[in-house]
Amino acid sequence: NAGVTQTPKFQVLKTGQSMTLQCAQDMNHNSMYWYRQDPGMGLRLIYYSASEGTTDKGEVPNGYNVSRLNKREFSLRLESAAPSQTSVYFCASSLGASAFFGQGTRLTVV
Amino acid sequence: GDSVTQMEGPVTLSEEAFLTINCTYTATGYPSLFWYVQYPGEGLQLLLKATKADDKGSNKGFEATYRKETTSFHLEKGSVQVSDSAVYFCALQPWGGANSKLTFGKGITLSVRP
Question: Do A43 and B107 make contact, defined as CB atoms within 8 angstroms?
C-alpha cells in the first residue's frame, strides 16, 4: 500500500525561485493537509483541504499557495522561495479520526 | 482556539525505565485525542487514540487515558526500549469534526540508552 506519497524527498532552491511540492494519497480520504516542521516549533499547519475543491489557510500560510487538483492530489507551491521557508514539509490525509503522513520533503533555500 | 501543550524536552531514559510524557489540551466539547510518533528520518505515524472521555488508547505497550476533568492525555509506558527512541506528538481533532484539521503539540524527543 502506497498511502501518502510526497515528491521530491529533498530539494535545494535559491532565494526567489519557485517550486511545487507534490502529494498524492490512494486511500480515498477527503481531508488533506500540508504541515511544516521546524526545530522547537513542532508541526505547524500551512494549508488544509476538507474535500475536493476546497482549501483553507492554516497557521502559517504566507508565502504558499495550494491546489486540490482532485480527491487524490494536493500540491503546495512556493512562488518566491525565502530562506525562512527552509524546513521539512509533510503532507497528510485523513478520513474521520487518524491522519496518515507522507515521508516528508526536506527543503533548503539558500 | 484549540491548542495542545506538551511537557518540555528532550527526555533521556535508560532501557526498562518507566516513561510518562505529559499532554494537556484546550478545546470546546469533546475532541478526539491522539499520540503520534516520528522515528528518525520518517513521517509521523499514529501510535494510539481516544475519542471520548475515560477511553484508554493503547498500542505497542504505550497507553494514554482521556481525562476530561483535567483536560489531559498523558502517554505512559512501563518499560521503554532503545527502539522507542523517537519524537512523540500529542494532537487533537475538534469535537464533531470528522474532517477537521488536527492541532499538534510541539513534540518531545525521547532518547533511550542501552
Answer: yes
